[in-house]
Amino acid sequence: MVKIAVISDTHGTINSGNVKDLFPKNSLLLTLGDIFLGELKILQSHYNFIGGVKGNCDAGNFLPLSETVEIENVRIFLSHQPPRIKIFSREEDQAEGYDIVLFGHLHRRVLLRENGLAYFSPGAFSSPRDGHGPSVGIIEINDGKFNFRFVEVNG
Fold first, then answer.
1. How many Å apart are CA 113 and CA 123, to the nearest integer?
2. Is the pLDDT assigned to residue 154 strictly greater than 90?
3. If DSSP codes are grouped into helix, strand and coil, which group holds residue 62?
4. Domains of the chain from N-terminus onward
5. What pLDDT digit, counting tens, does each position of 109-130 carry?
6. Cβ contacts of 137 within 8 Å, gap of 6 or more
7. Strand pairing of 100-102 and 2-7?
8. How far is CA 146 from CA 3, 49, 60, 140, 149, in A?
9. Torsion, Cα of 57, 61, 67, 68 (10° steps)
10. Is residue 155 pLDDT above 80, yes or no?
């Protein structure tokens, strides 16, 4: 089983102490924007960074506005804001479609399955806006199947 750590909207609140044991050991890491360059370096020192995107409040980081990653034959689209373009599922386009769409920006937890796609936002590490506390996400991939978890952030 592969575990993918997903974090978004930290807005300068990351330090080595509050991320050291945030995700399971050996987690792969995806970031969804509004994570400052110094924070990204801290996260990369603790987890295996495999991709990420720039948010609307980022300054000085090198990340793209959108990205595609594929892990264990699961194709994932990343963007900071919920996509404003049509994202095709693998059911609709086997060669170019996606299985999962990840985004942040809303500071709200989202898990929605629609038209063969799973849409997932881990909530916000900083300043959530949905009545929940700060959170991150974990995606577990096993034999082409995937599950999502929201993880409360203490502190």
1. 17
2. no
3. coil
4. 2-152 (3.60.21.10)
5. 999 999 999 999 999 999 999 9
6. 5, 6, 7, 120, 121, 122, 123, 148, 149, 150, 151
7. unpaired
8. 10, 19, 33, 5, 10
9. -130
10. no
